[in-house]
From TrEMBL:
Residues with 4-aspartylphosphate modification: D55
Source lineage: Bacteria, Pseudomonadati, Bacteroidota, Flavobacteriia, Flavobacteriales
Organism from which the protein derives: Chryseobacterium daecheongense
Pfam family, one: LytTR
Superkingdom assignment: Bacteria
DNA-binding as UniProt keyword: yes
Keyword Phosphoprotein in annotation: yes
Protein name in UniProt: DNA-binding response regulator
Amino acid sequence: MIKTVIIEDEKPASRKLERMLSDFPEIQIVAKIESVEEGVEWFSQNEHPQLIFSDIVLGDGLSFDIFEKVPTKGFIIYTTAFDQYTLKAFKLNSIDYLLKPILEEDLSGAIEKFKSFIPSDNSVSSQEIKELIKKDKTTLSRILVKIGYNLKIIQTHEVSCFFSENKIVYLQTQERSYPSDFTLDELEDVLDEKKFFRVNRQFIIHADYIKNIHTSPYYKVDLEFQPQEEITVSRDRVKDFKEWLIS
């Protein structure tokens, strides 16, 4: 059995996740936690589970606070409606990051990823967890953007490029550009490196949207959907760019 803890302060969301997890007979829920304070107390006094499903924004703080006070050897799958915490989640034993509403196929995929990390005797150290996560780096597949008072989920495969303008990073899709809460440095760490490449300090481009590449007098990329700015490849990145194109 996979001992599992749910950290969620919204009872309907907690019950829904519990129902979804009931479809996995190997999952045994040993505790449901609703606050940072309760989490710190529980993890200080109990044997840590192998797997943790944790919302991020709780009534009395962020669930990150729990594991910064009581480091865990368990793997964490974060569940949240807020994308701005993605990068920090990846650094705290997180093997996946599920945006609400959670889809059954995403949940199943996250559990299968967890299983792939665990040896047959279920023994794994805290350092081994960090090495496994580093080896199988989670990539960002969805981004939540704010449009007025509304939220919109955009799949990263819909993004032709990310670009910075006036200290704000935007993502470009077929329909328009959207502001994000990320920096390009943060995105570079979590985007699929087979699909995305940082061509210069201002742009990260998506391979599937490259329409044309000019090589004289300098490397310039035309995308199917892009802002008005010209996209050039920095001289010191040309060699890596060419290798990336055929990798």
